[in-house]
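Example 3.
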Amino acid sequence: AQSVTQLDSQVPVFEEAPVELRCNYSSSVSVYLFWYVQYPNQGLQLLLKYLSGSTLVKGINGFEAEFNKSQTSFHLRKPSVHISDTAEYFCAVSVISGSARQLTFGSGTQLTVLP
Amino acid sequence: DAMVIQNPRYQVTQFGKPVTLSCSQTLNHNVMYWYQQKSSQAPKLLFHYYDKDFNNEADTPDNFQSRRPNTSFCFLDIRSPGLGDAAMYLCATKEQGTSHEQYFGPGTRLTVT
């Protein structure tokens, strides 16, 4: 079964510093990868997705991620973070199960941006 | 704007008292999902509907049931809530076919007293 591993459960970083949130996935023939953000007491919002094509994917709020097939990674990056980026970030892979595709989530990374 | 709506946002119920959570969507997607998310954990899929075709995850307790009377609405029924069922419940939708993106509602936070 496909799965994702988020290597860091908590990442503290100072405001305006760069950040990288790490995600590794289990290898498969076709991989569809996502990053979602969750603010406190909110649902999940899609940041970006990789389905095919260019391995560098740009998302909302200045985030980007790079699909690396040889390292089976899909790390999320932002060159300069803001206080408002403080949230939980989930990496996910799309898998077929039953009659429809579903998402399998990593365990999440809490990003805390410090002033 | 097209969206996924969950009501109520916060629900308090008593131990053993049945409770129903509601989800509606204006996206006209034919796939709908229910997730349970406990504190500081990833969302865990309970079940999903593909149109009226119900798909239960193998480890979803029998205490959790769902109904989908039409394309727009989906309900999560917890027949006898226990303290361990306190969690955020997330509804999501997806368009069947080549789309892989799920659209999430804001969630309902359930407290069991």
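The interface with chain B takes residues 32, 34, 36, 41-46, 49, 51, 90, 94, 97-103, 105-108, 110 of chain A (CB under 8 Å). The radius of gyration of chain A is 14 Å.
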